[in-house]
Write a structure and sequence with these properties.
Number of helices: 5
Largest sheet: 2 strands, antiparallel
Number of strands: 4
Order of helices and strands: HEEEEHHHH
Distance between the termini: 48 Å
Strand order of the largest sheet: 1-2
Shape: elongated
Strand content: 5-15%
Radius of gyration: 20 Å
C-alpha cells in the first residue's frame, strides 16, 4: 500500500471560485481587497484585507465590484479584533485588559461594542424571523 501511495503523482491544488463556487485547477485569478469583516487568525497586520479567488476575470470583476460597494466600517474591524483576542484567552477580559490584547484604545473598544450592539438590535427587530 505504501508503495502505491509513493508512486501516485502529487495532486494539484484545487480552488473554489468565491463568486460561483466552481472548482478549478488552472487559470484562476486573485486579488486583495479592503474588507472590515476580515481579520487574520494570527497576524494583525493582515486585518482588514481579504484574498479573493476567482475562476476567471469576469467573476473577479464581479467580486471586486461587490467589495467596492461594501463600506469599510472601522467598528466592524475592531469588533472582530476583539473576538480574536477573546478567543485566545480562557477567561473574560475587561476593557483595560482588551486594550493591549487588541491594540485598540478604550474608546475604540466602546465604539466597536456599540456598533455590534446596534447591529444585534437591528438583526433581531420584532417581527423578523431569526432563522
Amino acid at each position: 500500500m505504501a508503495e502505491q501511495d509513493a508512486m501516485r503523482e502529487p495532486t494539484e491544488p484545487v480552488e473554489l471560485c468565491d463568486w460561483c463556487g466552481r472548482l478549478w485547477r488552472d487559470g484562476g485569478v486573485l486579488a486583495i481587497v479592503r474588507d472590515s469583516s476580515a481579520v487574520h487568525a494570527t497576524d494583525p497586520a493582515k486585518d482588514g484585507m481579504r484574498l479573493l479567488v476567482a475562476c476567471g476575470g469576469e467573476h473577479l470583476g464581479e467580486l471586486l465590484e461587490k467589495y467596492r460597494r461594501r463600506p469599510f466600517v472601522e467598528e466592524e474591524l475592531w469588533s472582530w479584533q476583539i473576538v480574536r483576542a477573546l478567543s485566545a484567552v480562557p477567561d473574560d477580559l475587561t476593557v483595560d485588559e482588551l486594550s493591549p490584547a487588541t491594540g485598540l484604545t478604550a474608546p475604540q473598544i466602546h465604539r466597536a461594542l456599540a456598533w455590534r450592539d446596534a447591529g444585534a438590535r437591528h438583526d433581531q427587530a420584532p417581527g423578523q424571523d431569526l432563522v
